[in-house]
Design a protein that fits this description.
It is a single chain. The protein has 2 helices and 21 strands. By secondary structure, it is mainly beta. It has 2 domains: 133 residues, no CATH class; 144 residues, Immunoglobulins (Immunoglobulin-like). It is rod-shaped and about 115 Å long.
């Protein structure tokens, strides 16, 4: 590099050919660099950090089908002529600060089959670097599953019908109310937007019985239908007090700095606060007295029941 007046003189290859990303795929480049999602100032793309021809720079290149019919090249921004750069122009471009030796470039595309390729603008400005930049998105991807599991997602609430008391031997209907939730966290200095969606439910009825995971949260019944069997109802065979909970399994997506949503591996499980349910026994007695004729007869209002 040499400084000439108000310009900087650089010598570097300006063109390279790489496969273009039609879809993200588990491929590798000639350097055996694994494809992964990378973050840059404009968001996230399915790209990898790879050396440019000659090994002078590191750049985020598109990666995908090996029979891609296109070829690609980059051109430095603020190039005056040959390898002379305008300092004032460079000062007005977005800074390339992810690693040492950052330089802004635009990317161009042309058909490989053309003897005289016509280059069209593809994207930019983006940056290339003399050292491989720190891959922030890869670090976030390595942490996001655990952070999602430890996040403050609100669990479902549980309702029983009837409740808080029910009868031994009767169907007691339960349903969960879980909501989709969105929130932002800061991770490795980046703004990460998370969307959490409830997908499955595991019921624990407090008497040693558990059901799930299942995709249905249950639903309320009108009072006239209480006692009907439902997908989430339960029959208690013993009297007593039972804590009832539901564990809601959430799947999530995340985006970094306004980029596209990416799936969070695995799922987060969040358990509701227990609902205390008292199970009573019912008794049926037959009486021969007519309370209108004998108000003091067995079973009549105000008359103590006989043991």
């Amino acid at each position: 590099m040499s400084r000439i007046g108000g310009t900087i003189r650089w010598v570097s290859a300006l063109a390279l050919t790489f496969p273009f990303a039609l879809i993200a795929a588990p491929l590798v480049t000639a350097d055996d660099d694994p494809i992964k999602n990378n973050w840059n100032g404009s968001g996230i793309g399915s790209t990898i950090w790879s050396r440019t021809p000659g090994g002078n720079y590191w750049g985020t290149i598109q990666a995908g089908l090996p029979d891609d019919p296109y070829q690609y090249k980059y051109e430095f921004l603020c190039l005056i002529s040959e390898n002379n750069f305008d300092l004032a122009c460079l000062a007005g471009t977005a800074p390339c600060t992810q690693a040492e030796g950052g330089r802004p470039v635009n990317w161009y595309i042309a058909l490989k089959s053309s003897a005289s390729p016509v280059w069209g603008f593809l994207s930019g400005p983006s940056c290339i670097y003399s050292e491989k930049p720190r891959d922030i998105l890869e670090e976030i991807a390595a942490r996001i599953e655990q952070d999602f599991k430890n996040s403050n997602i609100a669990p479902a609430t549980v309702t029983s019908q009837p409740g808080p008391n029910t009868l031994r031997g009767a169907e007691t209907n339960f349903y969960a109310d879980a909501k989709e939730q969105v929130f932002d966290i800061e991770l490795l200095g980046q703004r990460v937007h998370i969307n959490a969606t409830p997908t499955e439910y595991t019921w624990t009825y407090g008497d040693g019985t558990a059901v799930g995971p299942a995709p249905y949260p249950g639903a309320p019944l009108p009072e006239a239908r209480w006692g009907e069997k439902t997908a989430t109802s339960h029959v208690y065979t013993q009297t007593g007090d039972y804590p009832v909970t539901v564990a809601t399994h959430f799947h999530g997506t995340y985006s970094v700095n306004g980029g596209p949503p990416l799936p969070i591996p695995g799922q987060g499980t969040f358990t509701s606060a227990p609902v205390q349910l008292s199970v009573w026994r019912s008794e049926t007695k037959n009486y021969a007295d007519n309370c209108n004729q004998n108000p003091q007869g067995d079973g009549c209002p105000g008359v103590p029941a006989k043991p």
